[in-house]
Design brief:
Distance between the termini: 43 Å
CATH class of the largest domain: Mainly Alpha
CATH architecture of the largest domain: Orthogonal Bundle
Shape: globular
Number of helices: 8
Number of strands: 0
Order of helices and strands: HHHHHHHH
Radius of gyration: 17 Å
Number of domains: 2
Strand content: under 5%
Structural class: mainly alpha
Length: about 180
Amino acid sequence: MEAPDEELMLAYGNGDAGAFDTLYARHRGALFRYVLRGVKARAIAEELYQEIWILVIEARKRYAPSARFTTWLYTIAHNRLVDHWRRKELALVPADDEQQPASAAADPARQLEGREALARFAKALEALPHQQREAFLLHEEAGLTALEIAAVTNSEAEAVKSRLRYAYAKLKAATDV
């Protein structure tokens, strides 16, 4: 049985570098996608992503599990992105390097269909209002619940639930062909 993230972070705070390696491996993909979708350029996303992990490393001795580790991690990421947006006044854009499903790789017609569907989704995601897009990404990329998203974004849970409903409805309507 795998150790929970919270235990791993506490172990890391007590000097277990392997615990950090496990946490990093578990969360690197989803966290990077969240950051990448929040900025315009891959280089900026990579820089912010590294800064987030540096903040995690710096906080290792102070970490106290008052919520799920992912809630804590994405609160750091959210705050870092907000700081970046304020400083740079950048608009959110979706990632431009999404992967094709493995099943589509063999058939060129399915590849084209997949790329077109992905383009429709990316355009619909970009068109969402910021708060709906953020709630959607935190839910889908980070696996956070509405209550956890509320904690990360300093919002009311009902407002987050509403944002998620609207985001899913808009994305479904935009991608149904």
